[in-house]
Amino acid sequence: MWLLLIEDEVRLARSLQTGLEEEGYTVDVAGDGEEGELRALANAYDVLIVDWRLPRRDGKTVVENLRAAGREMPILMLTALSDVEHRVSGLDAGADDYLPKPFKFEELLARLRALLRRPPLATQQEVLQLGLLEVNTRRRQATFDGARLDLRPKEFALLEDFMRHPDEVISRTVLAERVWGDPFCVTDNVMDVTIFGLRQKLADVQPGTPEAHAVRIETVRGVGYRLVVEGAPDLLHDAT
Predict the structure, then answer these.
(1) Taking the model in full, what pTM does it have?
(2) Which of 131, 166, 188, 194 could form a disulfide with 229, with the two C-beta atoms 3.0–4.6 Å apart?
(3) What is the pLDDT of residues 168-193, one digit of tens each?
(4) Which of 146, 202, 178, 132 is nearest to 170 (CA)?
């Protein structure tokens, strides 16, 4: 596996590079955010490890820029900022997982293995459609009957997950794992606010929509949530 480590702490970077190479990874190292972003744009890395606090360009901005440029490799973010708000912010930027400093090297390896076990985004459907609702995962766009939904990153990730599991009750724990990357890093309040925002934006594009074509997110008390699309086919299909 070809890995890019973006870390400005020289001793830590050297230690991680040595350990990862002993585990069989091919490791490139960038010492600042700008260099790291350029390397990630120019090369097809299998996975990235990105520190939050970097000179010249912070890790959160690097991740945001890479995702905006269509780079889909798994990204693990490292940071000494361990509060929930920073975890959510990093994951909202597009990181797939989050590891607070200090950490055990064994945990870093386990998280990398977990990221690399996930199916590549390229193998998943790019355009998901249920009834009048359509999600383009590559363009990161969602529309309802042609009207675009202006979604924040985690709202989009929630909608995509619901679309891949239509009419299925999904627990809060599973949503936290699949959307935020860790069931323990997101508070109930953060999830509730994100669900509310997604519901509101779905409602905003549906005025006058017949009930037979309505889309809604149901709360299943004590269990989780379910996306219900009236009049949609039983199975999710690729719109392309």
Answers:
(1) 0.56
(2) 131
(3) 888 888 888 778 766 666 777 888 89
(4) 178
